[in-house]
Design brief:
The chain is of the alpha+beta class and 299 residues long. The protein folds into 2 domains: 6-135, Ribosomal Protein S5, domain 2, CATH 3.30.230.10; 156-296, Alpha-Beta Plaits (2-Layer Sandwich). It has 9 helices and 10 strands. The protein has helices at residues 43-64, 88-104, 110-125, 131-135, 171-184, 188-209, 212-228, 234-245, 271-280, and strands spanning 6-8, 16-22, 33-37, 72-78, 142-145, 148-151, 159-164, 250-254, 261-266, 285-290. Strand 5 (142-145) and strand 6 form a beta hairpin. Helix 2 (88-104) packs across helix 3 (110-125), helix 6 (188-209) runs antiparallel to helix 7 and helix 8 packs antiparallel against helix 9. It is globular.
Length: 299
Amino acid sequence: MYGAPALALPVPQLTVTAVARWSSRGTEGPGDVSFTMTGAPSRPMVAQASDGLRRLITAFTATLGTDDGPHLDVTVDSAVPPGRGLGSSAACARAVVHALADLHGREVTESETFDLVQTAENVAHGRSSGVDARAVGALSPLRFHRGEVQELSIGCHGLFVIADSGVVGRTKDAVKLLREGFQQHDGAEERFVRRASWLTEAARHALAAGRPEELGSRLTDYHDLLRAHGLSTRGIDDLVEAALTAGSLGAKITGGGLGGCVIALTRPERARDVVQDLQAAGAVQTWVVPLRGPADHVL
């Protein structure tokens, strides 16, 4: 946000599957595409996602030099709730890239995949930072800064509990709110970025050094920073407080702001209590993600 670094956590429990196939039912000729998206996203979200994926398909054809068929049917089955700061649009776009590659019998590099996902993300978000496009294909937590990524060194063991508030985040409104606040006070943007950057780097060092209490504190401090700038909501704050009361080491809002999810760092022995208290505080869904490095994952 505003040039500050970010730490991103992949969530392997939330998967997306896409299937692309040729069909003869289209009437508009080569390049005609239809989408089917499972779940119950709102019509505006489906329309927005379809716009981005159409742009992605056009870019895929141009990048890999593939031919258009008579009609393309794309089905996307996503377990990632949209608009919650969990990278739903990027995850769907990545799945579609690989579905198209399978359809055409082509290999796509990670660099090509990222560029194609960004094509869709820039439609969805205006100007995407790229953090979601990187994180949805990652096997371990990442540090992201100005387009560059690095795998994080992990010296802590614990769990992240993610709680869905059930409220769609409003990234564009949040960015506008933050920008307007910066314009009202000289030096506000610089102070925000300096504080956000310090908290992120302090969290990274705590993660590497095996200091979970400090890592948790930095999460909560970051939430307090975002809340002070109006980017949280009463419901999100209630979830953060519930996680802390239940014994989490720290918690913060995740995503663009004004809704979405809370992520809480928790010791394994406290996870059950944290999940129960988050649900009692209004979470509509929760997921538990072990804190792991790339060596802990089985390919």
